[in-house]
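Narrative of activities, Objective 1.

The group set out to show that a structural description can be obtained from nothing but a protein's sequence at a throughput compatible with the screening campaign. Below is one input-output pair from the validation batch, recorded exactly as produced.
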Amino acid sequence: MLAAGIEAEPGEEVLYTLNRRSQELWPRFAEELQAASGIDIGLRQEGTLWAALTRDDAAQLRFHHDFQRKLGINLEWLSGAEARRREPYLHPSIPAAVFSPDDHQVDNRLLVQALVVAFAGAGGRLHENRTVTALDVAGGRVTGLCLGDERETADLVVLAAGAWSPGLAGLPEAARPPVRPIKGQMLALAMDPAAPLLRHVLWSGRAYLVPRRDGRLIVGGTTEERGFDARLTAGGMLALLEGAWRAVPGIAELEIVESWAGFRPGSRDDAPVLGPSGVEGLVLATGHHRNGILLTPVTAEAVSRTILTGETDPAIRDFSLSRFHRPILAETDRC
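Output recorded for this entry:
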């Protein structure tokens, strides 16, 4: 979901600015990536709906709507009847909804496939299914990586390992990003692609539903502090199905085709950790929490600028590691 607007929350105004910039970059980024890879990454621009399921939900939704409008976000308040005209299979008792025309979606799996193809086409060498066992730091700077017993020399390393970023051996303590795994359980239902139950991304406050072009309906929304526990739970699946069913009762007849758990990389303030690490030759691009796909274009642009010019892009200055502590250099040799 590319939902910079509808996900904007009080206290995250600085993050919203970064999210919005990245969202504005997405159409051009998608066009360039599809041209480089030949893969349609499923960018859909129908907009996003947030439906209130009860009158209490509607009051809370009105608060968020008013706050987001003050940020200049383009939103439309809808009655329940107006929302059902856009999505006829919404629950008939829904009292209100908000429509965000600028919040869209992309198929993240197709996106990764396209990035792999484009990366190889640009001369990149991808080490698939290889574990980076350690970062090699000597003389106060990064000198390479250890892949098992093998060593890869590098002038510069970008640490972009998501929730696994702080666990890299050899990483100086002061350069270790305060990132942890935030578990999310998800499932996919099978709709008829020719007659889908939903055409917009839908938030309900209890779950989000994302319709894909191939007929899959992605249902997600759990947020759990469980470390790297990838087990699917009855409670997690129940919460997702109930939240989805309360918004779109017709899902009760759909087949469950897939279920899985993932780990969002969450920082202490739920914002990304971007830019220099305090160790020469090590740049950070992690901690994106729920906005990793949304922030892909601006992360790529800003981190590339940092690498090529040695200057921190102004867009990411508020998201440096230094906001958590003052870096202290250390030396390690872990190969």
